[in-house]
From TrEMBL:
Gene Ontology molecular-function annotations: DNA-binding transcription factor activity
Pfam families given in the database record: cNMP_binding
Protein's organism: Crossiella cryophila
Domain Cyclic nucleotide-binding, chain residue ranges per copy: 1-108
Gene3D superfamilies: Jelly Rolls, Winged helix-like DNA-binding domain superfamily/Winged helix DNA-binding domain
Top-rank lineage group of the source organism: Bacteria
Name the record gives this protein: CRP-like cAMP-binding protein
Length: 204
């Protein structure tokens, strides 16, 4: 099995929407954004964010269809990739690998469904709390009993996933800081009161 290692600087395109789906990728380091154009092609919509040890580009390879999203490096991104033929030989030889990939795709689908239901039924404050908790659990770290996550990454997910203006999101974020639930230091967001923030995700 031949693996190809590539490094992409922040903002670099890994593949474009509608490109042929001829490779599957695994993130070694960094963050990749999966983006697609809106139906009017006037906006770019963030569909998903993948981090270390996560795979992307697999769905279109399974379906043998063109890329439905573009993949763009959020920060310096290091990936391993293999071509479609090698990928299919790999999963035929190791059925456990295919089972693991299918479980991962099922988890991604369940997560997307939960987010869609959750974000349509609650107010902006609960939406924001939900996205911050998700960002911390996926990309954050815990030190001295505090969650922390890159502020730019958290805001990226907030502004794309919440159906409100950037000004509204920033106002609610400032309210969480005033309440003592969050603290912002430079480019790091700290969750000071995770219990209160988690409870806020359940409010309507």
């Amino acid at each position: 099995m031949t693996l190809q290692r590539n490094v992409y600087p922040a903002g670099k395109l890994v593949y474009a929407e509608r490109d042929p789906a001829d490779r599957i990728f695994m993130v070694l380091a960094g963050i990749v954004k999966l983006i697609r154009n809106s139906c009017d092609r006037e906006r770019r919509i963030l569909m998903s964010v993948r981090g270390p040890a996560e795979i992307f580009g697999e769905v279109e390879v399974y379906e043998r269809c063109a890329r439905e999203t573009a993949a763009v490096a959020h920060n310096q991104l290091t990936v391993l990739s293999m071509d479609e033929r090698a990928f299919r030989r790999w999963i035929r030889r190791y059925r456990a690998v295919e089972d693991s990939l299918l479980r991962d795709m099922a988890r991604q689908l369940r997560r997307a469904n939960r987010q869609l239901t959750h974000l349509r039924c609650i107010d902006v404050g609960s939406q924001l709390a939900h996205v911050i908790v998700e960002a911390c659990s996926k990309f954050g770290t815990i030190a001295h009993h505090l969650w922390s996550v890159d502020l730019g990454l958290a805001l990226l997910e907030c502004n794309q996933q919440i159906g409100a203006s950037k000004e509204t999101v920033n106002k609610v974020l400032a309210d969480f800081v005033d309440r003592g639930w969050l603290r912002i230091e430079g480019q790091t967001l700290f969750v000071v009161a995770p219990e209160q923030l988690t409870r806020r995700t359940e409010d309507s």
